[in-house]
Amino acid sequence: MTKIEQATLGAGCFWCVEAFFNEIKGVTKAWSGYSGGNVPGTPTYREVCSGLTGHAEVIRIEFDANIISYKEILTLFFTAHDPTTLNRQGADSGTQYRSVIFYHDEVQKEIATTIIKEVQPYFDNPVVTEISPLINYFDAEPYHQGYYKQNPDQGYCSVVVGPKLNKLRKLHADKLKN
């Protein structure tokens, strides 16, 4: 019997992280969105990229907790980006690219707090990942969903997303779907 749960995570540009999590065993779906801001209405990509909405680019992950745990999802999350750079991932900078865990309940909040303490020794600099309650989540526009899969030869995808995805695939080969 499946036990479907969700996680909402920000790790910089959502295209790479979405592509990676969609390849993980137990993940039934990962899709791009925005969360954490408090402006009225549904934000657009252009508005979020301005850094003025307070939203972060995030991925929503739906997973079967009988196959992969929330803690395992977070462990993968911490290898999929640099959680020690405040409001920056690579060349992308601004609060919309912050490292953030939007928890869905108090259990997720507790696990997130614990996992940050557990992974901190693996980093030379302090982990600056924000832990916040999930608020104001919106799906990103349809053209962002599965973006890397549909556009692997697009400039950013071939130079940034592809190599990062290949590295993550090698690092976590045991977690990939067949």
Instruction: Give the beta-strand count.
Output: 8
User: Mean pLDDT, rounded to whole units?
Assistant: 96
| CATH class group | Alpha Beta
**What is the CATH-assigned architecture?**
2-Layer Sandwich
Strand content: 15-25%
The amount of helix comes to 25-40%
Q: What composes the largest sheet? A: 6 strands, mixed
Order of helices and strands: EHEHEHEEEHEEHH
Domain count? 1
- The count of helical stretches stands at 6
CATH H-tier superfamily: Peptide methionine sulphoxide reductase MsrA
CATH topology: Peptide Methionine Sulfoxide Reductase, Chain A
Instruction: Kindly report how far apart the N and C termini lie.
Output: 20 Å
Q: What class do helices, strands and sheet pairing give?
A: alpha+beta
In terms of per-residue confidence, which ranges show pLDDT below 50 for 5 or more consecutive residues? none
How do the strands and helices of this protein lay out in sequence?
Layout: E1 4-11, H1 14-21, E2 27-35, H2 45-49, E3 56-64, H3 70-79, E4 88-89, E5 92-93, E6 99-103, H4 106-119, E7 130-133, E8 138-139, H5 147-150, H6 155-171
Parallel strand pairs: 6-7
Antiparallel strand pairs: 1-3, 1-6, 2-3, 2-8, 4-5
Helix pairs in contact: 1-6, 3-4
Characterization of this structure:
- With 178 residues, this protein is an alpha+beta fold.
- The chain has a single domain (4-175), classed as 2-Layer Sandwich (Peptide Methionine Sulfoxide Reductase, Chain A), CATH 3.30.1060.10.
- The chain is 33% helix and 23% strand.
- Strand 6 (99-103), helix 4 (106-119) and strand 7 (130-133) form a beta-alpha-beta unit.
- Helix 1 packs parallel to helix 6 (155-171).
